[in-house]
Amino acid sequence: MAIAGRPVAAQLRARVPALTGRVVARLLADLPVYADLPHEEISGDIADIVQHNLRLFADVVEHRRPATDAELAQQRDSAAQRAEEGVPLDAILTAYQVGTAMCWQETAKGALPGDLPTVLEIMDRIMVLQQQLTSAVSSAYLEARQILDSQDHGGRHALMAALLTGEPLDRFAHRTGPRPAARYLAMTLSLAPHPDELNQPPGPGAGVAARRKIRRVRTALDRFAGTPVLTALDASGGTVLLPAAGPPRWHGPGGLSELIEEAARAAGVPITAAAETAEPEAVPSAVARNTEIVDLVARTGRPPGLYRLADVLLEYQLSRPSEALRGLARLLGPLEAKPELLRTLETYLELGLDRRATAAALHIHPNTVDYRIRRIDRLTGLSPARPADLQHLSAALVARRSV
């Protein structure tokens, strides 16, 4: 089909990039909920689906046929994602109508009186495609919302709550829905804020960014487990329970460390996690320990990643309230008024007693590092150069962060 002597499908495909930009700009101008979306989502998911729709329209016109189910799969996936993010259905359908209208205007531009039969046929094709899009998007959106509501208020939510509070699980044995597993891998996650959460003013945009982050983390967890896992997550993190048939693999391909790295990449944020395998009745204490471990990792300045109790044994033990803990912390009392010495000591120990690396990290001369270490020795009586003192200094730094 051609208008004004130009093939419609080829002309539309050539204008897809520019028309995509105009459609997205129109959505931002006309629909407040889209204007509030994070920039990453506008330039990524939203622009991608607009471009996909324009190319689909070109195919429908060129081959003079309706769209196939396979060609509408991306629109259904997009609608389900918007449902998870809380974007209203009416705004999504309006966005499709805006895009279709602009596509029609672009196609019919320059039509001559003799092009009327072609224009009418193209209009018919557009109306059929619009009907297909409305049906596919609405059904996918409502199905996703139904699943989400069921998860929020149904058996999975109840099972998660029972496991976290240590309630008896007998009532789940003979009911429909998820059954308790013999063992669980309890994980506590700490999610850093996504840049879109920080760059958006308080309101729907920041909320969408947070929900998108959580959804991507859940998707990675579900893929790893091969089934929807039990989660209680918000923007800052939370708890995850995965059925565990046996001891999990911690490192290497398919291991938990790789899972956390994959989830962090998908969500676009650093993730700190702690994990422990426990029987159902021990889940509350495992979650409490994991929470302490994640907190210790943050307070001691360790990098994001997966941790277990064995990785923070010294810090964990020293964080228990006791007179010994306060005594260790008091070893560094003479340095409290000299923050530059404390910072030098912390950096020096973190970098394996490497004076040059410490100097580079602190932007000072290596000789200044040596001078400060000597001052620390004079003030506290402890020197990193003496093995026995090194152990006391390391423990004292941990204790100081814990009291």
Account of the 3D structure:
By secondary structure, the protein is an alpha+beta fold. 63% of the residues lie in helices and 9% in strands. The chain is built from 18 helices and seven strands. It has helices at residues 8-14, 16-30, 32-35, 39-63, 73-85, 89-108, 116-153, 155-165, 195-199, 204-225, 256-267, 283-299, 313-318, 323-330, 339-350, 355-362, 366-380, 387-402, and strands spanning 2-3, 6-7, 184-191, 230-234, 237-243, 271-278, 305-307. The strands form two sheets. Strands 4-5-3-6-7 form a five-stranded mixed sheet. A two-stranded antiparallel sheet has the order 1-2. Strand 6 (271-278), helix 12 (283-299) and strand 7 form a beta-alpha-beta unit. Helix 1 (8-14) packs antiparallel against helix 4 (39-63), helix 4 crosses helix 6 (89-108) and helix 16 (355-362) crosses helix 17. The longest helix is centred in the middle third of the chain and has 38 residues, at 116-153. It is elongated and about 100 Å long. The model has no long low-confidence stretch (mean pLDDT 85).
**Strand neighbour order, sheet with most strands:** 4-5-3-6-7
Poorly predicted regions are none
Share in helix: 55-70%
Q: Give the averaged pLDDT, no decimals.
A: 85
> Mind telling me the C-alpha Rg?
29 Å
Q: Largest sheet at a glance? A: 5 strands, mixed
Q: What is the number of beta strands?
A: 7
* Total count of helical runs of at least 4 residues: 18
Categorize the overall geometry.
Answer: elongated
